[in-house]
Fold this sequence. Notes:
alpha/beta; Arc Repressor Mutant, subunit A; D-Maltodextrin-Binding Protein, domain 2; single chain; 305 residues; 5-stranded mixed sheet; 3-stranded antiparallel sheet; 44% helix
Amino acid sequence: xxxxxxxxxxxxxxxxxxxxxxxxxxxxxxxxxxxxxxxxxxxxxxxxxxxxxxxxxxxxxxxxxxxxxxxxxxxxxxxxxxxxxxxxxxxxxxxxxxxxxxxxxxxxxxxxxxxxxxxxxxxxxxxxxxxxxxxxxxxxxxxxxxxxxxxxxxxxxxxxxxxxxxxxxxxxxxxxxxxxxxxxxxxxxxxxxxxxxxxxxxxxxxxxxxxxxxxxxxxxxxxxxxxxxxxxxxxxxxxxxxxxxxxxxxxxxxxxxxxxxxxxxxxxxxxxxxxxxxxxxxxxxxxxxxxxxxxxxxxxxxxxx
Length: 305
């Protein structure tokens, strides 16, 4: 369809910031692509791009047109999925923007389970921070987002949510490992800490709880990489924190790590959200996968296996 081809051309130029680079990606000449863009601008009655010494950049009108183009492309892809579904063929593509909590264990298990039933569906998973996950929904670069303890934007439509306790993790030889049941936050903060970055929900909840109880925090290591934190804790005498969805009992045991829940009186549980762009109609594949996630989260009250 020529109309959609033109929209995809605009999307390529906007994303790459260069008519020449977009033309190479589209396997056409830069002269032909430039002619298409000029013709579109003439039809719109105003330019969509600023011509710069080294490339092009969307202006305000271009940003509006890009949102329209992406919506049209998304609608057409969804229509193709729906038409295929009429013939009993479950096709489609689902893009998920997720904060790190669901990446190691939960999402891989859920995607594999879905593919067992619908092998013609494909997935893309974009690990990102809270703000980026929501921005990807707005730009239609993601269908579904999984985010933990976010400041929610008005465009974020909650599909479902789940309480997540805060878990303390430490070497199996650590003094805290001798305790049974839950542990106090104050006991954990008596030891050097390996903490996730400030931008994470876990760090936010910990700092709020420590400030409320006037407890000092001795941060020895901090990182956005959860695996790095676990490796650092394993080889040292540090304490880190995470949520059940992000942890695997098997992996903790194999790495000589122990874990205990923090007492609810010391720190409130966080919220894990599944969401989509408000008022957007998801494809059949994305809707079915979101429903599967809802069922899985309702049953998920402990660490991953």
